Amino acid sequence: MKVVLDITRLLRRSSQATPTGIDRVELAYARHLLASHHYQDRTAFVARVRASTWYLDAETIATFIDALAQRWKQSEGRITRRELGEVERFLHLAPGTLSELEPPAPPRSALPDALPPLQRLFSPVNLLPRLLRRRSAHGAVYLNVSHEGLNSVAGVRSMVRGHGLKPMYLVHDLIPLTHPEYVRPGDAEKHETRMRTVLASAEAIICNSLHTRNQLVAFATRSDLAVPPSVVSPLGIENEFDKEEPAMPAGPPFFLTVGTIEPRKNHLVLLHAWRVLVEKLGPKAPKLIIVGRRGWENENVIDIIERCRKLGDHVLECNRLPDGQLRRLMKQSRGVLFPSFAEGYGLPLFEAMALRVPVICSDLQAFRDIAGQAPCYLDPIDGLGWARAIEDYARPGSEARAAQLRQLAEIRMPRWNDHFSIVDRIIDVVADSPSIPAPPSAWRPAASLERSKALIAAGERAEAGRSLAFAAAQPHSSTR
Predict the structure, then answer these.
(1) Which H helix or E strand runs over 168?
(2) If you placed Cys at 339, which of 226, 266, 368, 394 could pair as Cys (CB 3.0 to 4.6 Å)?
(3) Integer Cα distance of 213 and 194 in angstroms
(4) H helices within 262-362, ranges in order?
(5) Whole-number Å distance between alpha carbons of 15 and 90
(6) Using CA atoms, how far apart are residues 203 and 480, in angstroms rounded to an integer?
(7) pTM for the predicted model, two decimal places
């Protein structure tokens, strides 16, 4: 059994200072395949550069992945003491409360350089003749977990047929198709092509939530396409969320919202709710810290943040925070807020829940799939409802907040080990199944697995025969 991971996106994004959510997922897959004994000497990597498919040396890939992971990790800590000082003043904390725990940011020149291993990857020594590589990888499971390159149907067809690969894909979301108003012009058409490529070529599909799979099935039905065998495997929480964070001195009640400032994240409902709270409570109104970089089409939100005098002492925009400081602020907050209009998964919400921090969020199926009944769910356009819930959770004796804390104490959020325990079994199923070549006139996926609409629930065990038929009637969070 051989596994080939497509790391085209990591190569393309390696010059960026910080990773996106999909970057983190592809990095997690690369590190798992390199570290797991299950794949020892059976892992290869592939990149598609300038319409060519390149198989890359695994040992050099390990050096590149390690350098990139360190670079991104250290870049997250590049917050200045001045920026931390603004948070301290906003929360009425003594100077140094946050910054004294943060090591000095490394200079840019000290960040690990991903370029040398990248150059070695594409050296003549590593780029062996394609025919030799093709023989060694023939029949391998091809993993694409980033949607990268899937808007070229011909390119995927050529790679799969020419190299004898068995494709598996991780589908993150169908937001460009279900909510085209929240993406850039042209993205909906591109994503439709990606999903058609997935449905037409996959031996198996991994979905990050039941909601994502339901959306994929609905798209396939509308498009008169068959759905290959698919499983649900929630993405994992990093192990750092099990660590104890140092407590902060008591200060005014505050909330956080985490996410890129863009229309889909619906920051406007929070800002209008805070205006209501400030008009009602005056200086006693709770505070809000907005953690996230500025995205696109956010002029209304930025105008309110920068120009609304009523909110000046109660709302702070913080473009970046080191992960440790973010966890610390989450733990101290009265709750974390997620008023999104649409999500494919919502990892920051589940990270907050892993820290046992109360959550108030939009009533989205993507959230309910993983979080169950614990959060406080609200309609994303119910501004007054958000204001009432925030005011309630800000009170020291809030019964609603206490009730959620009791539920959070019994919930375990998925970890990466949970995710890969499912993915590894599916890779084995696909690898062991015989491929049936498609007729020349029609390119279809190999009919090698049972076409089942059932799902694999996180934490369930595979039955004999390695079938993909599993039940998923319950949310993917679990009690201890």
Answers:
(1) strand 166-171
(2) 266
(3) 15
(4) 267-281, 299-307, 323-332, 347-354
(5) 34
(6) 34
(7) 0.84
Rounded-to-integer distance, Cα 288 and Cα 255, Å: 5
pLDDT score recorded for residue 116: 62
For residue 201, give the 3-state DSSP assignment. Answer: helix
Residues 246 and 101: beta-carbon distance below 8 Å: yes
Under the banding of pLDDT at 50, 70 and 90, the label for residue 115 is low
Q: How confident is the model at residue 253 (pLDDT cuts 50, 70, 90)?
A: very high
Residue type (1 letter), 201? S
Question: Quick one: tokens of 431?
Answer: 């690898």
Nearest Cα neighbor of 274 from 306, 320, 305, 295 is 305
Distance CA 455, CA 461 (A): 12
Q: Exposed, middle or buried: residue 402 (CB in 10 Å: 0-12, 13-18, 19+)?
A: exposed
Classify burial at 437, counting beta carbons within 10 Å of its beta carbon; exposed 0-12, middle 13-18, buried 19 or more: exposed
Contacts of 374 (CB under 8 A, 6+ apart): 353, 359, 404, 407, 408, 411, 477
Dist CA 300 CA 267 (whole Å): 10
pLDDT at 1: 62
Top-confidence residue, 139 or 230: 230
Whether residue 44 contacts residue 148, with contact meaning beta carbons closer than 8 Å, is answered with no
* Single-letter amino acid, residue 259: G
Q: What are phi and psi of 360, to 5 degrees?
A: -115, 125
Torsion of the alpha carbons at 92, 96, 101 and 107, rounded to the nearest 10? 120
Given CA atoms 294, 296, 301, 305 in this order, what sign does their dihedral have?
positive
What SS3 class is residue 10? helix
Both tokens of residue 141?
A: 């499971």
Nearest to 326 by CA among 115, 28, 56, 79: 79
Q: How far apart are CA 400 and CA 54, in angstroms?
A: 55
Query: Using 50, 70 and 90 to split pLDDT, how confident is the model at 126?
Result: low
